[in-house]
Fold this sequence. Notes:
This protein is mainly alpha-helical. It is built from 4 helices and 2 strands. The protein has helices spanning 7-12, 35-56, 77-90, 92-109, and strands spanning 19-21, 60-62. Strands 1-2 form a two-stranded parallel ribbon. The longest helix is centred in the middle third of the chain and has 22 residues, at 35-56. The N and C termini lie far apart (34 Å).
Amino acid sequence: IVDNLPTDVARMMGADIIIAVNVAGEYSQYDGANVLLTFSQVVTIQSELLLQEQIKQADIVVTPQVGKIGIVEIWRSKECIEHGLKAAQEKVTEIKNVIINRTFDKMFLGK
């Protein structure tokens, strides 16, 4: 539950390039009146510290603008997908550059 972005595991498994998707929400949007939402907020706050460390290990981080969508708002999944596609499309050039550079380094510099 706490390790939402296991970039360290991906690296350990031999990933050459890690593209992480950060879908962390805004935990400050809940007022604490609902027990389920309060529990969700506690988990989000707890995982935030680990998330920041894991993001540092990613080569590219895609961050869809889904912070205003609550963890229990499953009916908004189509909206999440649209935000994710938009954020990924904005990173295409960066992704291509990382792939080219890593391939060059591996093939010609032995890195």
